[in-house]
Write a sequence for this structure.
């Protein structure tokens, strides 16, 4: 992978960035995504934010290599602290982290989202945390995508500010309102995998001494299994 040829996952993230955006890529690593967006004319300018010194230096080298120093600013900062008001950022991308960490980044830096028109978020796990944040903070889920690459399944959530939010069901928080409607083979595979894993955990719990904590966790897993199986079998409509 490089700035000219992204992974399928990052290509799909890039596809959701509006044309002529000013993009902040948080946790940018080698800055491949912002370089790609600027090189292909999707973004006018970009900020590559990285909290770790090593990836920050890699991002700086990549931007220099692509001769994009005038278009891309690389900042060593935690989360959305990389975004300054004068940047005029209109779109934020956060990819390749867990859903709870992405939620934490959005929560900690929400005052820096003023003027941002779109969030493109790609959690590796626990996308539910992002849907819950969107509901609380009045962001609408305008697009969702699920894809498989190298035997790993990823979700992409696209959020835009909203005046009015439609409440989600527990199944929609967990599995995604649009993804449930599309019901693709990859979506089905993901949730069959999850159910299988949860059932193994429940079985192992049954072989251990009962405690209040174990019983609570077991009940939580059984409820999720029931919820998912209802969707997979077409009962949750």
């Amino acid at each position: 992978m490089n700035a000219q040829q992204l992974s399928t996952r990052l290509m799909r993230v890039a596809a959701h960035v509006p044309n002529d955006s000013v993009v902040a890529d948080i946790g940018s690593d080698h800055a491949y995504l912002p370089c790609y967006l600027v090189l292909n004319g999707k973004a006018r300018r970009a900020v590559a934010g990285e909290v770790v010194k090593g990836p920050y230096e890699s991002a700086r080298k990549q931007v220099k290599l692509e001769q994009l120093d005038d278009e891309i600013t690389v900042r060593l900062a935690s989360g959305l602290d990389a975004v300054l008001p004068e940047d005029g950022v209109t779109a934020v991308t956060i990819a390749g982290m867990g859903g709870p960490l992405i939620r934490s980044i959005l929560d900690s830096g929400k005052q820096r989202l003023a003027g941002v028109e779109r969030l493109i978020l790609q959690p590796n796990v626990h996308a539910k945390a992002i849907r819950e944040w969107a509901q609380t903070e009045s962001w609408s889920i305008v697009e969702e995508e699920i894809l498989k690459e190298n035997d790993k399944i990823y979700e992409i959530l696209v959020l835009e500010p909203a005046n009015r939010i439609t409440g989600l069901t527990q199944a929609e928080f967990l599995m995604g309102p649009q993804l449930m409607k599309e019901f693709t083979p990859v979506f089905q595979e993901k949730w069959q995998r999850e159910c299988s894993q949860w059932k193994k955990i429940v079985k192992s719990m049954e072989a251990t001494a009962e405690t209040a904590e174990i019983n609570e966790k077991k009940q939580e897993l059984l409820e999720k299994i029931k919820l998912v199986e209802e969707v997979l079998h077409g009962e949750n409509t």
Observations:
- Residues 185-232 form one domain.
